[in-house]
């Protein structure tokens, strides 16, 4: 019963097999391995973007931060959700790699940025001439940090606002495939089709050991990204072990299969919790993440049985067994029906 995070789940066996195969011989370093050539074409095919520049890094923080450093000048501000990962969970990394660009936070009640709030935030900058930050890129997380998913029309609305002010757009796609499967759309439709300029195409949370793809739909930014990746110490020497993971991921649609399994598991868990007395789903799950609350007694039963997940508000220790505590639950590709049903039974008591 492990629902703490999808990045804590196991690596898929096909990915391990690909790593073993890549280890069988010599290969040129720094992305010159032949596997990377295949991966580059796989990614371009997935995104229907034959001219896109494609790079691999080991972490989502690196992918987001180096993209934003390529898009933003040090004297600009990046617009993002108030709960965006780049704000709350990356230790100032985007600010560091941009050389000092700041973040302007936009209200996002359910994890999705409010268009009116975004417009107000953008218009609030470039009002003080040389004394204030200039308008930089808009960063959108899909799926969001609350487990919700932007529709294509919602994405288009935000991006049209950004474009109307001449700003670039970035998508933090740590759970990109979970959102895509939920919407039933293509990668192209969810990115450049609505105006996204660059995307962090996540893999670590969806069955890989540790690799994220950076996809730049404007190839003119490619060389600057390469230089920034090297300077940020994210150009891997034995790059083939990144390439091998991504190759397995994109072969025979494994990426879609794993996200579908995770989303299906989340839907089962959501149904069970909705049928449980005194349990409240706080945001309608759009992919593979749930925020819910139920009484402390249920949390205590789960804790005693070895379940692992994060309690986001309140404390497990307390005198009132009926006090509701908020939890975050994330399903990965390996979640089983048996463990989900056992979890729900323990919540019920």
From TrEMBL:
<dbReference type="Pfam" id="PF01212">
    <property type="entry name" value="Beta_elim_lyase"/>
</dbReference>
<comment type="similarity">
    <text>Belongs to the threonine aldolase family.</text>
</comment>
<keyword id="KW-0663">Pyridoxal phosphate</keyword>
<dbReference type="InterPro" id="IPR001597">
    <property type="entry name" value="ArAA_b-elim_lyase/Thr_aldolase"/>
</dbReference>
<dbReference type="InterPro" id="IPR015421">
    <property type="entry name" value="PyrdxlP-dep_Trfase_major"/>
</dbReference>
<feature type="domain" description="Aromatic amino acid beta-eliminating lyase/threonine aldolase">
    <location>
        <begin position="3"/>
        <end position="278"/>
    </location>
</feature>
<dbReference type="InterPro" id="IPR015422">
    <property type="entry name" value="PyrdxlP-dep_Trfase_small"/>
</dbReference>
<dbReference type="InterPro" id="IPR015424">
    <property type="entry name" value="PyrdxlP-dep_Trfase"/>
</dbReference>
<protein>
    <submittedName>
        <fullName>Low specificity L-threonine aldolase</fullName>
    </submittedName>
</protein>
<comment type="subunit">
    <text>Homotetramer.</text>
</comment>
